[in-house]
Amino acid sequence: MNVLTDNLSRYGKGLLGTVELTVYASVLALVLGFLMAAFRVAPVASLRAFGTVWVTVLRNTPLTLLFFAVVLGLPRFGVALPFQLFAVLALGCYTSAFICEAVRSGINTVPVGQGEAARSLGMTFSQTLGAIVLPQAFRSVIPPVGSTLIALAKNSAIAGSFSVTELLGTYKTLNELGYSIIWTFIWIAVGYLIVTLTISAVFNVLEKRWGVAR
After folding, report:
1. Which of the 8 DSSP states describes residue 167?
2. Which residues contact 71 (CB under 8 A, 6 or more apart)?
3. CB atoms within 10 A of CB 57
4. What's the chain's average pLDDT?
5. Residue 31 pLDDT more than 90?
6. What span, in angstroms and rounded, lies between the C-alpha atoms of 105 and 33?
7. Main-chain dihedrals φ then ψ at residue 80, nearest 5 degrees
8. 3-state DSSP call for residue 72?
9. Section 178-188 average pLDDT
10. What is the DSSP string of 106-159?
11. Pairing with 43, which of 27, 115, 159, 165 sits 20 to 30 Å away (CA)?
12. Nearest to 196 by CA among 67, 26, 55
Protein backbone atom coordinates (compact mmCIF):
# COMPACT_ATOMS: atom_id res chain seq x y z
CA MET A 1 0.00 0.00 0.00
CA ASN A 2 2.93 2.40 0.53
CA VAL A 3 3.30 2.76 -3.24
CA LEU A 4 -0.19 4.27 -3.32
CA THR A 5 -0.18 6.16 -0.03
CA ASP A 6 3.24 7.73 -0.60
CA ASN A 7 2.36 8.83 -4.11
CA LEU A 8 -1.35 9.54 -3.91
CA SER A 9 -0.96 12.97 -5.53
CA ARG A 10 0.99 11.49 -8.47
CA TYR A 11 -1.62 8.80 -9.01
CA GLY A 12 -4.35 11.41 -8.65
CA LYS A 13 -2.83 13.68 -11.29
CA GLY A 14 -2.32 10.73 -13.61
CA LEU A 15 -5.89 9.52 -13.13
CA LEU A 16 -7.27 13.02 -13.66
CA GLY A 17 -5.21 13.34 -16.84
CA THR A 18 -6.58 10.05 -18.15
CA VAL A 19 -10.14 11.05 -17.30
CA GLU A 20 -9.75 14.42 -19.05
CA LEU A 21 -8.26 12.80 -22.14
CA THR A 22 -11.05 10.23 -22.21
CA VAL A 23 -13.85 12.76 -21.79
CA TYR A 24 -12.59 15.32 -24.30
CA ALA A 25 -11.56 12.74 -26.89
CA SER A 26 -14.88 10.89 -26.46
CA VAL A 27 -16.85 14.06 -27.18
CA LEU A 28 -14.76 14.74 -30.28
CA ALA A 29 -15.04 11.10 -31.42
CA LEU A 30 -18.82 11.05 -31.00
CA VAL A 31 -19.33 14.31 -32.89
CA LEU A 32 -17.03 13.32 -35.75
CA GLY A 33 -18.28 9.73 -35.74
CA PHE A 34 -21.93 10.70 -36.15
CA LEU A 35 -20.99 13.32 -38.75
CA MET A 36 -18.96 10.84 -40.80
CA ALA A 37 -21.75 8.27 -40.55
CA ALA A 38 -24.12 10.87 -41.97
CA PHE A 39 -21.63 11.56 -44.76
CA ARG A 40 -21.36 7.86 -45.57
CA VAL A 41 -25.11 7.50 -46.14
CA ALA A 42 -25.60 10.92 -47.74
CA PRO A 43 -27.01 11.19 -51.28
CA VAL A 44 -24.08 13.45 -52.26
CA ALA A 45 -21.25 11.40 -53.79
CA SER A 46 -18.48 13.75 -52.62
CA LEU A 47 -19.63 13.46 -48.99
CA ARG A 48 -19.79 9.67 -49.24
CA ALA A 49 -16.28 9.61 -50.69
CA PHE A 50 -14.95 11.88 -47.93
CA GLY A 51 -16.52 9.70 -45.23
CA THR A 52 -15.14 6.53 -46.82
CA VAL A 53 -11.61 7.94 -47.05
CA TRP A 54 -11.77 9.21 -43.45
CA VAL A 55 -12.77 5.80 -42.10
CA THR A 56 -10.43 3.80 -44.32
CA VAL A 57 -7.34 5.87 -43.53
CA LEU A 58 -7.89 6.19 -39.78
CA ARG A 59 -8.97 2.60 -39.17
CA ASN A 60 -5.88 1.30 -40.95
CA THR A 61 -3.36 3.69 -39.37
CA PRO A 62 -1.66 2.61 -36.11
CA LEU A 63 -2.62 4.98 -33.31
CA THR A 64 1.02 5.56 -32.34
CA LEU A 65 1.79 6.65 -35.90
CA LEU A 66 -1.20 9.00 -35.81
CA PHE A 67 0.15 10.52 -32.58
CA PHE A 68 3.50 11.15 -34.30
CA ALA A 69 1.72 12.71 -37.28
CA VAL A 70 -0.32 15.06 -35.08
CA VAL A 71 2.26 15.93 -32.41
CA LEU A 72 5.26 16.26 -34.75
CA GLY A 73 3.57 17.02 -38.07
CA LEU A 74 1.10 19.81 -37.26
CA PRO A 75 3.72 22.14 -35.68
CA ARG A 76 5.59 22.08 -39.02
CA PHE A 77 2.54 23.78 -40.53
CA GLY A 78 2.50 26.43 -37.82
CA VAL A 79 -0.11 24.73 -35.62
CA ALA A 80 1.16 25.14 -32.04
CA LEU A 81 -1.11 23.60 -29.42
CA PRO A 82 -0.63 22.09 -25.94
CA PHE A 83 0.41 18.43 -26.04
CA GLN A 84 -2.82 17.43 -24.31
CA LEU A 85 -4.87 19.01 -27.10
CA PHE A 86 -2.75 17.22 -29.70
CA ALA A 87 -3.48 13.96 -27.85
CA VAL A 88 -7.22 14.70 -27.80
CA LEU A 89 -7.16 15.33 -31.56
CA ALA A 90 -5.29 12.09 -32.26
CA LEU A 91 -7.47 9.96 -29.97
CA GLY A 92 -10.72 11.61 -31.02
CA CYS A 93 -10.11 11.39 -34.77
CA TYR A 94 -8.86 7.81 -34.56
CA THR A 95 -11.83 6.64 -32.50
CA SER A 96 -14.32 8.55 -34.65
CA ALA A 97 -13.68 6.10 -37.50
CA PHE A 98 -14.88 3.20 -35.34
CA ILE A 99 -17.82 5.22 -33.98
CA CYS A 100 -18.77 6.02 -37.58
CA GLU A 101 -18.90 2.36 -38.58
CA ALA A 102 -20.92 1.44 -35.49
CA VAL A 103 -23.44 4.20 -36.21
CA ARG A 104 -23.60 3.33 -39.91
CA SER A 105 -24.36 -0.27 -38.98
CA GLY A 106 -27.16 1.01 -36.77
CA ILE A 107 -28.52 3.15 -39.60
CA ASN A 108 -28.61 0.07 -41.83
CA THR A 109 -30.86 -1.69 -39.30
CA VAL A 110 -33.57 0.95 -39.77
CA PRO A 111 -36.09 -0.25 -42.38
CA VAL A 112 -35.74 1.52 -45.73
CA GLY A 113 -39.45 2.27 -45.69
CA GLN A 114 -38.94 4.67 -42.79
CA GLY A 115 -36.79 6.98 -44.91
CA GLU A 116 -38.99 6.60 -47.96
CA ALA A 117 -42.06 7.54 -45.93
CA ALA A 118 -40.28 10.62 -44.56
CA ARG A 119 -39.21 11.71 -48.04
CA SER A 120 -42.75 11.21 -49.34
CA LEU A 121 -43.86 13.75 -46.74
CA GLY A 122 -41.41 16.27 -48.15
CA MET A 123 -38.70 15.93 -45.49
CA THR A 124 -35.12 16.67 -46.54
CA PHE A 125 -32.25 14.22 -46.09
CA SER A 126 -30.99 16.00 -42.97
CA GLN A 127 -34.49 16.11 -41.47
CA THR A 128 -35.04 12.43 -42.22
CA LEU A 129 -31.70 11.46 -40.75
CA GLY A 130 -31.99 13.61 -37.63
CA ALA A 131 -35.66 13.06 -36.80
CA ILE A 132 -36.37 9.55 -38.11
CA VAL A 133 -33.28 7.42 -38.76
CA LEU A 134 -30.69 8.38 -36.13
CA PRO A 135 -33.06 8.18 -33.13
CA GLN A 136 -33.89 4.59 -34.11
CA ALA A 137 -30.31 3.71 -34.99
CA PHE A 138 -29.05 5.11 -31.67
CA ARG A 139 -30.93 2.42 -29.74
CA SER A 140 -29.02 -0.38 -31.46
CA VAL A 141 -25.55 1.20 -31.36
CA ILE A 142 -25.34 1.89 -27.63
CA PRO A 143 -23.34 -1.31 -26.80
CA PRO A 144 -20.75 -1.02 -29.62
CA VAL A 145 -20.26 2.70 -29.01
CA GLY A 146 -19.72 1.99 -25.30
CA SER A 147 -17.13 -0.67 -26.12
CA THR A 148 -15.36 1.73 -28.48
CA LEU A 149 -15.14 4.44 -25.83
CA ILE A 150 -13.76 1.92 -23.33
CA ALA A 151 -11.05 1.13 -25.89
CA LEU A 152 -10.40 4.87 -26.21
CA ALA A 153 -9.81 5.13 -22.45
CA LYS A 154 -7.21 2.37 -22.64
CA ASN A 155 -5.63 3.81 -25.78
CA SER A 156 -5.07 7.08 -23.93
CA ALA A 157 -2.03 5.39 -22.31
CA ILE A 158 -0.10 6.14 -25.52
CA ALA A 159 -0.33 9.86 -24.76
CA GLY A 160 2.13 9.45 -21.87
CA SER A 161 4.91 8.91 -24.39
CA PHE A 162 4.22 12.38 -25.82
CA SER A 163 4.66 14.47 -22.66
CA VAL A 164 1.00 14.28 -21.67
CA THR A 165 0.11 13.70 -18.04
CA GLU A 166 -1.86 10.45 -17.76
CA LEU A 167 -2.05 7.41 -15.52
CA LEU A 168 0.40 5.02 -17.16
CA GLY A 169 3.12 7.66 -17.28
CA THR A 170 3.36 7.68 -13.45
CA TYR A 171 5.32 4.41 -13.53
CA LYS A 172 8.44 6.17 -14.87
CA THR A 173 8.77 8.47 -11.85
CA LEU A 174 7.88 5.75 -9.35
CA ASN A 175 10.36 3.34 -10.91
CA GLU A 176 13.11 5.96 -10.64
CA LEU A 177 12.19 6.44 -6.96
CA GLY A 178 12.75 2.73 -6.34
CA TYR A 179 9.18 1.58 -5.74
CA SER A 180 8.10 -1.94 -6.65
CA ILE A 181 7.29 -1.99 -10.36
CA ILE A 182 4.74 -4.77 -9.82
CA TRP A 183 2.69 -2.82 -7.28
CA THR A 184 3.11 0.35 -9.31
CA PHE A 185 1.44 -1.31 -12.28
CA ILE A 186 -1.21 -2.96 -10.10
CA TRP A 187 -2.40 0.44 -8.86
CA ILE A 188 -2.23 1.84 -12.39
CA ALA A 189 -4.42 -1.07 -13.52
CA VAL A 190 -6.87 -0.28 -10.72
CA GLY A 191 -7.08 3.30 -11.98
CA TYR A 192 -7.87 2.18 -15.53
CA LEU A 193 -10.39 -0.28 -14.14
CA ILE A 194 -12.18 2.58 -12.38
CA VAL A 195 -12.37 4.58 -15.61
CA THR A 196 -13.53 1.71 -17.82
CA LEU A 197 -16.07 0.39 -15.31
CA THR A 198 -17.53 3.89 -15.03
CA ILE A 199 -17.97 4.09 -18.80
CA SER A 200 -19.47 0.60 -18.82
CA ALA A 201 -21.92 1.54 -16.06
CA VAL A 202 -23.04 4.67 -17.92
CA PHE A 203 -23.70 2.73 -21.13
CA ASN A 204 -25.46 -0.05 -19.23
CA VAL A 205 -27.88 2.55 -17.90
CA LEU A 206 -28.35 3.96 -21.40
CA GLU A 207 -28.94 0.50 -22.84
CA LYS A 208 -31.51 -0.39 -20.19
CA ARG A 209 -33.36 2.86 -20.82
CA TRP A 210 -33.16 3.19 -24.61
CA GLY A 211 -31.55 0.01 -25.95
CA VAL A 212 -33.24 -2.49 -28.24
CA ALA A 213 -34.76 -5.38 -26.28
CA ARG A 214 -33.01 -8.64 -27.11
Report:
1. S
2. 83, 86, 87, 90, 162
3. 12
4. 88
5. yes
6. 12
7. -110, 110
8. helix
9. 82
10. HHHHS-HHHHHHHHHTT--HHHHIIIIIHHHHHHHHHHHHHHHHHHHHHHGGGG
11. 27
12. 26
Q: Which residues contact 120 (CB under 8 A, 6 or more apart)?
A: none
Comparing 32 with 119, the larger pLDDT belongs to 32
The tally of CA atoms less than 13 A away on the side-chain side of residue 10 is 18
pLDDT in tens, 68-81: 998 888 888 888 88
pLDDT digits (tens, 9 = 90+) for 49-62: 999 999 999 999 99
Query: Is the entire prediction scored with pTM above 0.85?
Result: yes
Alpha carbons within 13 A on the beta-carbon side of 152: 33
Region 103-129 average pLDDT: 84
Q: Is 177 helix (H, G, I), strand (E, B) or coil?
A: coil
Q: Which amino acid is at 33?
A: G
